[in-house]
Predict the structure.
Amino acid sequence: MNTRTVTIQLPSDLMLAVHDMATEQEGTVGKIVEDVLVAHVAAHKGNQRTPQITDERLIFALQKLLFRDMADATDWADLDERLRRHGYFLKIAWGGLSLHTETSGQKLCNTADLGFSYVTFLRRFGPGKPKNPREE
């Protein structure tokens, strides 16, 4: 395979989370980024060639990145703002909440996968739902 060097800029907290994940899995940041990109491109093309471990790695990275903000949020607006700082937003999806990227709107996972069910947020914040920036 012909490879090229690419330089990307990431928020410090995301870079630290990916670096920690690479260290724990005795891999490299480059390999993790490559796996995520392969999965993303495959999903866009409808191709089934996705690494089986990408979903677990993505969930783990998102947990490390977002857990503190999701745990410390005081209401729906605060949660929206905290997630927006990282480039994400929430949508209600089939009785739960799903996490999406702000840039493409792509669904990444359900909040329950990160340890926070919709019911958890309803108990903490009361009725309501997060604002979808694409519908504003």
User: Anything to note?
Assistant: Residues 80 and 130 are 6 Å apart (CA to CA).
